[in-house]
Amino acid sequence: MNKKSLTITSFALFSLFFGAGNLILPPLLGFRAGNLWWLVALGFCVSAALVPILGILAHAKLQGTMFDFAKKVSPLFSTLYCFLMYAIAIALPSPRTASVTHEMAVQPFWDSSYLLTSLIYFVLVFIFAINRAKVLDLIGKLLTPAILVVLVLIMAIAGFSLDFDFAPSSLTNPFSYGILEGYQTFDAIGAVVVGAVIIVSINLKEKDLAYDDKRRLIRAAGFWAGLGLFIIYAGLILTGALFGKLFDVDISRTALLSGISIATLGNTANLFLSVLVSLACFTTAVGIVTGTSDFIRSQFNDSVLAYRITALVGCVLGVLVGQFNVGHIIAVALPALMFIYPITIILIVLNVLPDKLTPPTVFKIVVWTTILFSIPDFLGSIGWGNAINPYTSWIPLGQYQLGWVLPALLALVLSNIVHQKTKVG
Length: 425
Fold this sequence. Notes:
By secondary structure, the protein is mainly α. It contains 17 helices and no strands. InterPro entries: Brnchd-chn_aa_trnsp_Livcs.
C-alpha cells in the first residue's frame, strides 16, 4: 500500500467529517460532564467518529451512490430516504453554519442582527453555488490544517497550565448523552451523502488498484482518520472539562469555545480562529447547497433550472433558519435527528456487514424494526415522552433515547436464523 496515498486518503476522510460545526459541540460536552468527561467522550466518539467511518467503509464496499444504501428495502424507500436526507441537510446544518459564523466572528465585534448576517452570508453562498468557484476547494484544503494547529495549541496549553481538578458532572447519563450529542455533528449523514465523493476520488487517482486493494486502502485510511477524530474530540471534551469551574454554567457553545481560545491563546489568536471557523462554515454551506442542488438536478433530467431553483430555495431556507441562535437550531434539529439517525446508523451497519448476513429479507426486517422502535424516541423529543411512557417504558434503553438499538440487533439475529432455516428447508 502506497504511504502517500494512505496519508492523502486519511486526511481527506478526516477533513470530510471535521467541520466548523464539530468544534462547538465537544467543549460544552466536557464542560457539563466534569469529572465524567471520559464517559461522554466515548459516547460522542461512537456516533461522531466510529459511525461516520463505518459509513465510508460501507461506501467502499458498495462502490455506488447514496441510493444504494437503502435499495435493498425498496427503490421507493431509497428515493424517499435520499430526499429526506438532503432536505434535512439543507434545512438544518447549512443554516447553522451562518449562525455559528455570526456568534464566532460577527457578534463579538459588531452590533448587528443574526438576520443581517444570514442574509449576506447566503447571498454569497448562492453566488458561489451558481458559479461553482474553484477557489473554495483550495481554501477548504488549507482550512482544516490551520484549524487543527490552533486547536492543538489550545488543548496543549490547557492541559499543561490547568490543574486536573474537575467539577462534578451535571449529566445523569453521560455516555448516552454523548452519543445523542454526536448526532448534532450530522457526520453519519455526511458519510452517506458525500462519502461517495471520496470513493470517486480514489477511483480516479488509483485507477490501477484492484477492488480489494481499494477497500484495504480505505479501511486503513478510515482507521487513521477515526483515530484522529477520536483524539481531537476527546481532547476538546477534556479541555472543556478543565474549564468547568471558570465559566458561567449557562454559557453557550460558541461563547465557551471563544472563551477557552482567549484564555489559552489571547484575543489575537481568538480572532484568527474566528476567521478560520467562519471560512470553514462557508465552504460547508456551499458544499451542502451544491450537493443538494446536484441531487435534485439528477432527478429532473439534468435540468439546470432545477439546480438553480434548489440552490435558491436552500439559500432562502438558510436565511430563515440562520437568523436563530446556534442553541435554538440545535434544539430544533433534535426531533429530525432522532428520526433519521437510527435509520442512517442501521443502514450503515447493514451495508458494512457481509452480504450473507444481510439478504434483502433480513435487511427489510431490521430497517423497519429500527424505524418502529425509534418512533418513541422521536415522540419524546417533541415533548410527548410522558404521554407515551406508560406504553413504551418496557423498551430496553428507552430511558436513554436509544430504544431502537436492542430491537434492531435482535431483529438481525432472529431474521438471520429464520432465513438460514428457510434456506436449509
